[in-house]
Design goal:
The protein is mostly beta strands and 166 residues long. It contains no helices and eleven strands.
């Protein structure tokens, strides 16, 4: 049994001190519909439905179909968390479901969080985990991929920089 005061559990592999990642793509989703915002017992719920967006990257390129969905729950201390999903349509015709869930820290409370309202620009930075699902043989490697995303909002665009854990 592991000693709870140790740095890690007794395991065959040494503990990871850093993770190698591979940049898969950047996903940019514009939002022209106003978000649906309402109060719940858990906090303020914000539901966003995206327009068609772009997918730009070394491993995935194409578009993300209109109707992408982001569902954020803002708690009483300003932390936002929740799932989102959308269908990537690649340049070569494959459809790939991208599902993520993430956390956005309270605006201005974290060192990596930047709020810049100059020039009508607001950048809110957070992190998410991502998973993929596809029946396309060309992209079947995505079905077992675990990825992380740096996520942010700039003006009315949601931006996800997707990295595969390698």
């Amino acid at each position: 049994m592991a000693d709870s005061r140790s740095e890690s559990a007794d395991f065959l592999a040494p503990p990871a001190r850093s993770l190698d990642v591979e940049h898969l793509c950047d996903v940019v989703i514009p939002f022209t519909l106003p978000p649906q915002v309402f109060e719940t017992p858990l906090g303020t719920r914000e539901v966003l439905i995206g327009d068609e967006g772009t997918v730009i990257g070394p491993r995935l390129r194409g578009s993300i179909r209109a109707g992408s969905h982001i569902d954020v729950l803002w708690n009483s201390v300003g932390v936002g968390q929740g799932p989102g999903n959308g269908v990537i349509h690649t340049e070569d015709g494959a459809d790939v479901l991208l599902t993520g869930t993430g956390v956005i820290p309270p605006t201005g409370k974290e060192p990596e969080q930047v709020l810049d309202s100059s020039g009508h620009k607001t950048w809110m930075n957070g992190w998410a985990s991502a998973f993929f699902e596809t029946g396309a043989q060309t992209y079947s490697w995505l079905n077992s991929t675990v990825a992380v995303m740096q996520v942010g909002f700039i003006e009315s665009r949601y931006i996800m920089r997707v990295f595969r854990l390698s």
